[in-house]
Amino acid sequence: MKRRIVMRASSPLRTRAALIRCVVVVAALIVWAGAVRLGFVDPVFVSSPGDVGRALAGFTRDAEVLSALVVTVRTILIAFVIGTVAGLVVGTVLGLSRTLKDAYMPPILFLLSTPKSMFLPLFVLSFGITTQTAIAFGAFTVFFYVCVNIVGGVELVEAHHLRLARAFGASRLSTFRHVVFPASLPGFFAALWHGMTHAVSSILLAQLFVAIGGLGTLISVYSTSLQTDKALALTVVISVIAVALAALWSITERRLTSWRANQ
Amino acid sequence: MNGKAQSTAYKAEPSAQNSEQGGAALTIKGVGVDYSTAEGTFTAVERVDLDIAAGEFVSIIGPSGCGKSTLLHSIGGLIPPTRGEVEFRGEVIGEPHPDRAAFVFQDYSLLPWKTTLDNVALGLQFKGVSKGERRARARDLLRTVRLEAFANSYPAELSGGMQQRAAVVRALAMDPDILLLDEPFGALDEHSRRQLGVEMAELLTTTGKILILITHSLDEAVFWGDRVVVMGASPGHVKEVMEISAPRPRAVDFMLTDEFVDARRHLLELSRHDLDGEPEPAE
């Protein structure tokens, strides 16, 4: 919700907020560079802004990094799609059926609040040190977030809107199309959003801890071999991907739920 | 009370006006509604008998919980009666049928994700009327309530009064035989309420439709109604049916006549003595 409000703020306010944000980032970079130059910290462990920048530039010609990037993005997408489809189906069914919701929501909510990383070793046992481990673990994690948000979205359908549809002679299909679906759109977008962020984090986590290739594994390799500049540069790459996804998401969401603009 | 505003006892012979207009078009025959709750069966409406003639305007008043909304929902087919039945021109009303009886709800119930135009056209869309035709009809109707400039606005951008005008023409778009108004002005402030009331009086009372209005306002009930049905609570029943003989449409001046003042005073006394439920506030 906060994110929306910031994006809707008037433009002078937005410019000022952006400026303040930049000041903090620039200040942090200066302190970091200064601390390294003055010898307060060891560049072997924290690198320096200049080195990280050079490492970043080097990535564009680095076949190892580029192929790891492709592997990671592909794995994230596969896990996201599997987990989201499963979560959508199960979430819609649970959302529409009182009984099934009462039966299955407690265990789902229980697993949702358990740290999913606990289960990673179990996935390794089942799938071995392969990309399938990351995909299965990612889809498993994504499923819970999508499912819970879809159920929440279907709950947003208001009784008086359903009554209206009945009073005006809507068929079941019309009721779903014109009332249930639009009312659950915010939950649907929240579901996709949480699904995507958890797909990214769970895949990277799996790649960090299980040597199956991809950016996560590469970060692990770079940091254990003290190539701190490259490790940090990789985290920058991952952040940029995450921010780009976020921006794409909020634009799509705003376009499809424009009626909420004044609510 | 003498002469001008006559009170007829509940279950009286069909009124003179009804027989003049050739009998009832809408017949509410021994309608009762029970709800089953966790604590057992709760009777919302015990038994209501009412004959309503074509073109008649009936106001229903009563304390909270007297089942007046439930009764209205039964008339429109939204809540099936537990006992008795509702007949329109000899046909039993079962399911909601917006061509026959269309609702205007207290909370407007405009869909926030549809524009005002598409909200007005909603019933026509459910009916399968083509996009061009239903939009043209909706546009014409919006013009009658001076909302044409807001056709492409979303409900959230409209004031309460504007939303309710849109909800009224959404019901009119179905060209129903019966218009069911469930406290349509209840959520509005006093000023908007009066203004909208006068505007709607002109629009609605010239349609020739049966109009049934649920209201908390004695003024509204008397100003609009050919008859005022007074309901009592625990369980819901009809206490009295009162005729207001002044011809419609009525001008604002009608509120200054003896008939209006007498009728209103009588209703006030009735509700004051209503020990079944909480007394109605004067306004």
TrEMBL record, chain A:
GO terms for cellular component: plasma membrane. It holds the Pfam family BPD_transp_1. It is found in: Cell membrane. It is a multi-pass membrane protein. The chain crosses the membrane at residues 20-40, 76-96, 108-129, 135-154, 199-219, 231-251. Keywords: Cell membrane, Membrane, Transmembrane, Transmembrane helix, Transport. GO terms for biological process: transmembrane transport. The keyword Membrane applies. SUPFAM superfamilies: MetI-like (SSF161098). Residues 65-249 form the ABC transmembrane type-1 domain. CDD domains: TM_PBP2 (cd06261). The keyword Membrane applies. PANTHER family: ABC TRANSPORTER PERMEASE PROTEIN MJ0413-RELATED (PTHR30151:SF0), ALKANE SULFONATE ABC TRANSPORTER-RELATED, MEMBRANE SUBUNIT (PTHR30151). Belongs to the binding-protein-dependent transport system permease family. This is ABC transporter permease subunit. The lineage of its organism: Bacteria, Bacillati, Actinomycetota, Actinomycetes, Propionibacteriales.
